[in-house]
TrEMBL record:
Residue ranges annotated for the Carrier domain, each copy included: 1-76
Protein name: Acyl carrier protein
Record-linked PROSITE patterns: CARRIER
Pfam families (alphabetical): PP-binding (PF00550)
Transmembrane portions of the chain: none
Source species: Streptomyces indicus
Length: 86
């Protein structure tokens, strides 16, 4: 299954030339050498890829890859309904 984390990793490698070996769930975006402008570009790409809205006030370059994946997953269509059902 292609998870949000897998998609984020793919985008980091293909669009931002991040070395795949450096991408780990606990790696922060800053540790992956993404500056604030690159982080905004990543968020824009993720919004288009997943069809979600990323609130820049709730996110930062200090987020880990896992935190960003969880943030995106929580905002996917149907995520609210699934959370209510459980």
């Amino acid at each position: 299954m292609n998870t949000a984390q897998d998609t984020i990793a793919r985008i980091l490698v293909t669009k931002f030339s991040v070395d795949e070996e450096n991408i780990a769930p606990a790696a922060t975006l800053a540790a992956l050498d993404l500056d604030s402008l690159a982080v905004l570009e990543l968020f824009d790409t993720l919004q288009g890829e997943f069809g979600v809205t990323i609130d820049e006030a709730e996110t930062s370059e200090d987020m880990t890859v896992a935190e960003l994946a969880a943030y995106v997953t929580e905002r996917l269509p149907g995520a609210a309904r699934a959370a209510e059902a459980s």
